[in-house]
Design brief:
This protein is an alpha/beta fold. The chain has helices at residues 17-29, 65-82, 94-107, 126-136, 149-152, 192-200, 220-229, 245-249, 266-273, 303-315, 317-322, 335-346, and strands at residues 4-9, 34-39, 55-57, 87-91, 111-116, 141-144, 158-159, 179-183, 210-214, 236-240, 254-257, 278-281, 295-298. The chain folds into two domains: 4-163 and 333-349, Rossmann fold, CATH 3.40.50.2000; 179-322, 3-Layer(aba) Sandwich (Rossmann fold). Helices cover 35% and strands 17% of the residues.
Length: 350
């Protein structure tokens, strides 16, 4: 494919789910085309994370929104015009798509723009939905993770799931350890405070259970304070960022999702790959991979239901075993399958 593919995100140093799947896709596509990773921030070097794919940053560190916005457009346009090959630019959010559209218009750059939105359309405000639909009328292609909410909102797209971060099913998992695991950025959307409240509500007889939360983020100090206030510091550990998937999931008996909004999270797919039973606050996007045979889901507004079901799961070994079925579609997110779908999609623009 005689085309340069640019995958554009905010900040690859965040090491979140979106950034991880961008790197995986870039590595897969790099076998067939020239691929670059590009972000706005300047916090990441071309280290081991990007060893197979060139990484570039626009290097914008200012927090002044207007200045940042226009400088991003200018530098992005300059970067795009530098290449002599036809370019396909893949943006991972509607804001980045807006920047790409304006950069193409202002700099008169000949590029193909593809949206790869990871957030569910229904989770945006009505104002943002109207703006998104207008912006998307100027782009060339649209990739969604599932065909539920976005298509119902009249945003046409091609459905391609993310490459899962664990390709091979683990041979074994230690199920005897009483460990509850959650993984994600420590921010308001992930709502780990709801998990801490539920964990603190466990009966005294369940005090041999531990809670491990993996991830970094702006709410770390707030969560540490809540752990102290709930008097559960002896049984809760905020582990920070961890690369080793076996260390995260290998001894987990329950995996919890407490987010207010999500696409199809990588960490959820990872937990199911390890066949860990899941307890989650219900989201429409989870219907792609969560079923009654591998999870318990409760309404977003029912903290008490979440607390009660966490109590049920820690108390009932047989229940946990019955929910340890993993992914219903073992081919979901397989690298070769997903790569073929992306190549087939991108070739229509070459």
């Amino acid at each position: 494919m005689d085309t340069e593919i640019i995958i554009f995100s905010y900040d690859f140093s965040r090491r979140g789910g979106v950034e991880n799947v961008c790197i995986l896709l870039a590595e897969s596509l790099s076998e067939l085309a020239k691929v670059s990773l590009l972000d706005i921030e300047n916090k990441c070097s071309n280290n081991g994370d990007f060893s197979r794919v060139p990484f570039e940053s626009l290097g914008i560190t200012s927090n002044l929104k207007t200045y940042r916005f226009f400088k991003t457009i200018f530098l992005l346009g300059k970067r795009i015009k530098r290449s002599r090959k036809p370019q396909i630019c893949i943006g991972t959010s509607w804001y980045l798509i807006l920047v790409l559209v304006l950069a193409r218009w202002i700099c008169k750059a000949k590029i193909t723009i593809v949206s790869w939105e990871h957030k569910q359309f229904r989770d945006f405000s009505d104002r943002d939905k109207r703006l998104m639909k207008y912006i998307y009328s100027f782009i060339d292609g649209f990739v969604v993770l599932d065909d539920n909410s976005m298509r119902r909102e009249s945003c046409p797209g091609v459905v391609i799931e993310n490459i899962r971060t664990i390709q091979e099913i683990p041979l074994s998992r230690t199920t005897s350890e009483n460990i509850i695991v959650a993984v994600g950025r420590l921010d308001d959307n992930k709502a780990f405070d709801r998990l801490l409240i539920a964990f603190a509500s466990l009966e005294f007889s369940q005090e041999n259970w531990m809670l491990h939360i993996y991830g970094d983020g702006p709410n770390k100090d707030k969560l540490e304070l809540l752990v102290e206030q709930l008097r559960i510091s002896r049984r809760v550990s905020l582990k920070g960022y961890e690369r080793n998937k076996n260390l995260i999931y290998g001894s987990a008996s329950i995996f919890c999702m407490t987010s207010y909004s999500e696409g199809v999270p990588c960490v959820l797919i990872e937990a199911l790959t390890f066949k860990i039973p899941v307890l989650a606050f219900e989201l429409e996007s989870y219907s792609t991979i969560l079923t009654n045979s591998n999870s318990i889901m409760v309404s977003q507004k029912c903290q008490d239901d979440f607390n009660e079901n966490l109590q049920r799961m820690v108390s009932d070994y047989n229940l946990r075993q019955s929910l340890s079925t993993g992914l219903s579609d073992t081919g979901y997110g397989k690298k070769d399958i997903v790569t073929r779908r992306w190549i087939g999609f991108l070739e229509t623009y070459v």
